[in-house]
Amino acid sequence: MTDDEAVARFRKDVETCFGSSCNFCEKDCPVYKVKKDKSYTSRGKNRAILGVLEGKVKPSEELARLFYTCVLCGSCDARCAMENNQRFKEMRRVLVKRGLQRKEHRDLIEAVKGTGDIYGRKIDLARRFGEEGAAPVAAGGGPAPAAPATVIPLYIGCQYKDSAEDVKAVIKVLRACGIEPGIGDEYCCGFVADALGFEEDFKEIKRRNREVVTYNDFITVCPSCTHYFKIEYSLNPKHVLQVVSENLDRLKWKQPRSGRRKLKVTWHDPCDLGRRLKLFEEPRKILEAMGVELVEMRLNRAFSVCCGAGGGILSTDRELAREMAKNRMRQAADTGAEAVITCCPTCELALLRGSLAVGKERGRRQEVLGLYRFMADHLKG
Amino acid sequence: MAAYVDELRAALGERVRTEDFERFAYGADWSPRTPKEVFPPDVVILPRETEDVRKAVEIALRHGVPVTAGGGLTGMAGGAVPIHGGIYIDATSMNRIIEVDAANQTVRAQGGATMQEILDALEPHGLWIPNLPESKWSCTVASEIACDNDSTFGMRWGKILNALLSVEVVTGRAEVVEFGHRKAHFSSSGYKVKDLFAGSEGTLGVITAATLKAEPVADGRSVDMILFPSMTRAVGYLDRLLKAGLAIDGAHINCKRRLRFYTHAYKEKHGHEPEVPDWAEALLAIILSGDRKVLDFNKKYAFKIASEMGGQPVKERDIVESWWISKHTLAFEPYKQKWPKSQTDKKFGACDPGVPMGRLEEFYRAFVATAEKHQLQILGMNAYLEHPNSIGFSCSCALFVNYRDQGEVDRFRRYFEELSRIAVDMGGTMSTYMGDTDLRVPYLEYEHGSAVAYFRELKKVFDPKGIMNPGKKLRWEGEGKCGAGAAGAGSVGGGAPAPGGDGAAGGGGR
Ligand SMILES: Cc1cc2nc3c(=O)[nH]c(=O)nc-3n(C[C@H](O)[C@H](O)[C@H](O)COP(=O)(O)OP(=O)(O)OC[C@H]3O[C@@H](n4cnc5c(N)ncnc54)[C@H](O)[C@@H]3O)c2cc1C
Ligand code: SF4
Ligand code: SF4
What we know:
heterodimer; A: 381 residues; alpha/beta; Fumarate Reductase Iron-sulfur Protein, Chain B, domain 2; Rossmann fold; 3 domains; 5-stranded parallel β-sheet; 4-stranded parallel β-sheet; 20 helices; globular; B: 510 residues; Uridine Diphospho-n-acetylenolpyruvylglucosamine Reductase, domain 3; Alpha-Beta Plaits; 5-stranded antiparallel β-sheet; disordered C terminus; binds flavin-adenine dinucleotide; binds iron/sulfur cluster
């Protein structure tokens, strides 16, 4: 298919948006909230595509900037009845094919292909976490000869590889659920190549991934990897939080000492975990079982707002990302919760930065906590 | 790059947009039009403060450049489409809530605040604004005023003028003027110039802030539907309720076909259309509110009178709920919002006349006949009652329009004109919530006769150079297409109407 044909496929949907024009997606678009410019909303981008189809808008670096100034959060899809995000991603592919990619994106993709890691690192996971007592996984996914039979492969993902504390926490929690996680070599799932529009590179990364990650049923830690393995690879990943919520009756949590009040927390739904994997209730069930007081932000579950760091925005507009994180943290602050809990490495970092700024504004800083560590700290025994 | 764009940049910095895709996003609203009929402005500005708007209008005035202000761009007749190019002021970038005075039950907001943003600000104070269109998530307070929208709760609280206490405007003279009576709920002092802005369509100035009277949120609300064998019977029933002393928040008389447009949520849930008995030709939706006890009594009383007058309440709550989601709560299930789904092949296109009390049924028949004459698919009629505590109709006469087909869009415009004229012939008015835009310019005299000359003089007081949303309401008397090619790329639209042309005759300026 030529890229002109690819754009032509969008005609029906972008015309439907033109015909509907309801603008209901603008309200909660995190980019719009900061920029206040209608061309950046889902409707604005649909109009831009219509403009290309009508020959009124030229593909240009500026147009590419528009499509990269989107966190692909899916909020507009939840407010609509069309798959706008998929279209925006495909539009990025068209722009890349026309040579309108950004240099920093190309460099990133090359690093992924070269090392199998989003940050271009080479980490021997089996060795590193083997020392924590995790069982090794053999090629093919089964336990290595020395490991117990109950071993289930655990795919850590690039973003968590370096966060030993999180991985240790996950191992601890899984063991409490009666599961022995196995750790072996990994290769990036390639979500970044797909999100940035590098279609051919994504195919290549997928191929290489399957040479290393040969199992089909496994446990995942990162929401984005989980989403990609499930949708793009058609595998059976199970996110840690699914495992935990299924095993809640096995787990005993430390409760606040009598007379002490419960910790008041709010849950931030990561876009991939929530809108894409529909894991809305699992984390809430876990938090409730842990005995904390859970309060909701005004926008939650399918209508949750992105932390501001998705869709490759960090490589395009850091200032915008910071402002979006502040907006999400303002919503969190409005709940009066002492802490915001989430379980995505990108969200955690972005919200942490946001909380510093909003803390100054409001005179009180909210903590940002990762659910894995929070669970591990509160496990009894 | 035209000199005025450089001046705008000097005055407003990076909040000036000239890329083709940035302008294209602002070239159409929700009016029936084909994708070829997008009219991008030459430059877009994103003001934050009134002073930004004033500076932009001052520059426009100096260079004789058209200025069009817009909000959510959900208007139904092209009001915010910059048909003559020039500067587009995206007022939604000015959306601060300036003050909630809970004790006085008033709220002041910048013109670009959406009605929903105002509701959110009032909620903690137990207050709300009842003058609300279905599009409250997108519609700004300035547009609400500039279009003089109809409201879901119009039977008790009327249209926006019932709430509008004061309005700040940047006039076409590039002056910032406050019209109204501050926070006083009414006044006999001065001329009631503020009222001119209701339905002004941005032709007198840019609305930059407004003070509205809010209302206390009632303890309870009931929403019901009652079936009647005819529209006349439904009207008679409402008249009887008013005589009985009931305060009715909202009343909407739908024809049977129209109901289907509101049952999206029902269909999602049940997989089929709701069933309505054959004999029922009118579905009256009725909204009441108040303290629980009062509400219960009123509802019972209203139902008693309904049964005496041949009305039958709709028992299946999902039908009523579905209508209410569409009309007010907008609590659509995620990924299943009604609007895009309902506009995939054809879109909602309406004409909005008002007719005298006794002529609703007759007008409904005229609507059906006119639509059929122009071979357009009927979506249905809804008569909203929009005058407080009295019977006054705002008729939404809606069709499904194939907006990809120029011939059908043109037929829709002929239908729009013919039905507008029929309403005038019946002693009514052409428009009750969309305004005149450029569509009705060629036949505005049909309703207003020699008053149009006075309209023109009035406009000159506010806008001596005729730069404010030119071509809307009145013919544009400017020369040439101001600002053509200002941004270097020329107009990226489908070609503006002939300069000084009369809109509709100009070929596609809507
Ligand atoms: C889903 C949906 C439901 C709707 N439901 C209703 C309904 O129930 N009732 C109803 O009446 N309408 C309804 N509409 C139509 C439309 O939403 C309203 O007319 C609304 O007022 C338009 O608001 P907007 O902010 O989108 O205005 P726009 O389309 O952007 O502008 C409308 C007019 O206001 C003028 N204007 C905007 N801002 C300013 C300003 N700052 N100063 C001066 N003039 C200005 C523009 O020039 C234009 O003439 C609906 C539309 C949609 C898409
Ligand atoms: S909600 Fe969907 S149809 Fe409506 S404006 Fe947004 S993208 Fe378009
Ligand atoms: S995906 Fe998110 S950031 Fe992108 S347009 Fe939709 S709501 Fe806005």
